[in-house]
Amino acid sequence: MVELSPTLLARLCEISVPYASQVLSGARELPRELAVRIYRETGHKLGPLVDATEREIKALERIPLRVRLGTEKTPANDTPQTEAAA
Q1: Rounded to whole angstroms, what are the CA distances from 49 to 10, 38, 67, 69?
Q2: Is the CB of residue 39 less than 8 Å from the CB of residue 60?
Q3: Element (H or E) spanning 67, and its range?
Q4: What is the mean pLDDT of each run of 10 residues along the chain (86 residues)?
Q5: Other CB atoms closer than 10 Å to residue 35's CB: what's the count?
Q6: Which is nearest to 73 in space by CA: 60, 58, 63?
Q7: I want to staple 35 with a disulfide (CB 3.0 to 4.6 A). Which of 20, 22, 47, 55 is the partner?
Q8: Cα separation of 41 and 6, whole Å?
Q9: pTM of the model
């Protein structure tokens, strides 16, 4: 497994280098969605995934992502839906 640098993490996960640096140093709390994306892109388990099994990570991926108040999208359906329409 390759060692992660802020620059490499930023490039792979499409986040800023300063944010990647904060994530790697533990200065910023890592959202679940980003932790899963980092794991899938790099193989590194960070933040809430540190002790998670592959089965648990797959279960986390099925939880709907909150986009903004009153809407959600799921990995299977990238189209935001209002909670009333869901």
Answers
A1: 18, 10, 21, 25
A2: no
A3: strand 65-68
A4: 88 92 91 90 91 93 66 53 52
A5: 22
A6: 63
A7: 47
A8: 14
A9: 0.66
